[in-house]
Amino acid sequence: MSKRIRLTTAQALVKFLNQQFISIDGIETPFVEGIFHIYGHGNVLGLGEALENNPGHLKSYQGKNEQGMAHAAIAFSKQHLRQKIFGVSASAGPGSANMLTAAGTAFANNIPVLFLPADTFATRQPDPVLQQLEHEHSTDITTNEAFKAVSKYWDRIDRPEQLMSALLRAFEVLTNPATTGPVTICLPQDIEAMAYDYPTSFFNKRVHYVDRKLPTQRELDGAISSITQSKRPVLLVGGGAKYSQARDELVELSEKANIPIVETHAGKSTVAFTHNNNLGGNGILGTSAANKAVMNADLIIGIGTRYSDFTTSSKTLFDFDNTTFFNINVNRGQAYKFDGFQVVADAKATLQLINKHIGDYQSSYAEEMNALRLEWEKERNRLAGIEFNRDNFTPEISEHFSQEILNAYADALKTELTQTAALIKINDIVDDDAIVVSSAGSLPGDMQRLWNANVTNTFHLEYGYSCMGYEIAGALGAKLANPDKESYAVVGDGSFLMLHSEIVTALQYDKKINLLLFNNSGFGCINNLQMDHGNGSTGTEFRNLHNEIMNIDYSKIGEGYGLKTYSVNNLEDLTTAMEDAKKQSISTLIEIKVLPKTMTDGYDGSWWNVGVAEVSERESVQRAYAKTQQVRDNARQY
Ligand SMILES: Cc1ncc(C[n+]2csc(CCOP(=O)(O)OP(=O)(O)O)c2C)c(N)n1
Ligand SMILES: O=C1C[C@@H](O)[C@H](O)[C@@H](O)C1=O
Ligand SMILES: [Mg+2]
């Protein structure tokens, strides 16, 4: 009989987590950094006991909101390029349900996180327990069934010995770049605390090897011939390229064959913007330069991209009749997109081989890339210099608010600052190696267009789920991953209101984060979307019952938490605050009061397919519907 050790299920889980390692390019590191937790009766006596008494190398952090702490875990893993994770533990019922949104966020972004929701009694003896749902048709369903929809692997441990097969599957999924994402292991509170004689071999050190999958000869030949037959190829860099750390190979190919680079939200900052061939973010929120290149391409080399609607402008950005696709992706399903030539392999390894075999192929771009970049630079400078005036101001998002309404905002918020000018100024001031985190609202659009990321892996956008409330927790996760760098949350007032409680966690554990809070008193981007499609402005501005624009003092809120705070309404004060914030050792909040409608607008190619009302009493909505329908008719259908 093999040697055994008697442990509770939770103790066995903690012991196992300590023994998981990942090996990439010959470098072996522990895979699990620690556990974020909010204890309740469902986990404090099981997992809580195990972590208190024998945590091993696992670090424990007390979260403040389950969604927030799980967002921090996502950001930590994303910033670590998926090579290190956190587990997140919540109590049964509402605590676990609070993590569902974050599991969706991890899923949409393919980020590994180990979700450990507590569950109701497996023995069902004290049925129904507090926070248990009593279904009429089944006693087998708990809140945690909902995680099935947002997990790459889901399991429930109804007996202690099930833990073994569950964890082996879980860690295969978590460490496999083709399938990685959130994994959920539900832990009924009685089973967490129940003991079992586990074979000691289960706790041996396990190394998960992430070998770089090479393309086959057929794939490589096809890739080379796709490129050499094209005249105007474009390298479309997605998150997969960043996670594969393919920067050097992308630069080499781009330089030697003279191929422009464009980036998705997840791919941005794989190659720094300082590189002359980098034309920036593309798609709905793209730069004029990137979109022009893509629209005129005859080959898109999609590297680690899911081709989301924001990347493809809802399948309208490419000249589908004249453009072919060749996709490098570790995930076969992703490589199939747009009937592309499929290379199911690691991005870095594939690009290395392409570079070796491409010969002296040259695209036909000549000076064009430089011209596109210069044109964009000029446009960006224009956006940096936009100044409000009270007489005849035309904001970037024009024809929505009258001068009178804009003046009312200027009065209520006591500001004349425009969002584009503020964001570009911030870009000028932050350290090149600082990490900027954003996810929802109008800011991801401005970031995708305007933010020049000068150092690899400093641009951290969660734009798979675009989950409001990710930003601040995300800045904490990024700080935990890169403790020596400044970490900034670029967050709208709406997102701030939705979720900011991990501020307290950052203060508690002395992890400095900086919040750049853009206060435009409303759900600005949704207001734009609504008004762009012929509607009024109902429900998206922050106005009270008397229709007065609300002016919330966010810097006071930050002060209450113990942050060093600033409130600014002009570029000079913004500069002073940013410089001062850098000198602080505690976390900071800069409230930046900006006027609505002063974010960037779209450039050619940035159309978004959204559900416009087919019938309406409003003529403006009817017109918007007709216009939408026209573009829809020309969009690629699959
Ligand atoms: C959790 C969540 N709820 C709702 C949405 C839909 N949504 C996207 S942006 C937005 C408003 C964002 O407002 P704010 O953060 O102030 O940014 P702004 O657009 O004003 O810059 C809403 C409601 C979302 N993305 N995430
Ligand atoms: O509905 C949305 C509109 C986008 O502009 C925004 O960035 C995103 O957060 C969203 O959910
Ligand atoms: Mg807002």
UniProtKB/TrEMBL annotation:
Q: Where is this region: Thiamine pyrophosphate binding?
A: 442-522
Which organism does this record belong to?
Virgibacillus salarius
Pathway(s) the chain acts in: Polyol metabolism; myo-inositol degradation into acetyl-CoA; acetyl-CoA from myo-inositol: step 3/7
Which positions in this protein are listed as binding thiamine diphosphate?
66
Care to name a GO molecular-function term for this sequence?
acetolactate synthase activity
Q: How is the cofactor bound?
A: Binds 1 thiamine pyrophosphate per subunit.
Q: Where does Mg(2+) bind?
A: 493, 520
This entry carries the following GO cellular component terms, namely:
acetolactate synthase complex
**Which protein, by its recorded name, is this?**
3D-(3,5/4)-trihydroxycyclohexane-1,2-dione hydrolase
Biological process terms from the Gene Ontology for this record are: inositol catabolic process; isoleucine biosynthetic process; L-valine biosynthetic process
Specify the Thiamine pyrophosphate enzyme TPP-binding domain's residue ranges: 440-592
- Which catalytic reaction applies to this protein? 3D-3,5/4-trihydroxycyclohexane-1,2-dione + H2O = 5-deoxy-D-glucuronate + H(+)
Q: Which domain of life is it from?
A: Bacteria
Q: Which cofactor does it need?
A: thiamine diphosphate; Mg(2+)
Q: Which family does it belong to?
A: Belongs to the TPP enzyme family.
NCBIfam families recorded for this chain?
myo_inos_iolD
Query: What PANTHER family does the annotation carry?
Result: 3D-(3,5_4)-TRIHYDROXYCYCLOHEXANE-1,2-DIONE HYDROLASE, THIAMINE PYROPHOSPHATE ENZYMES
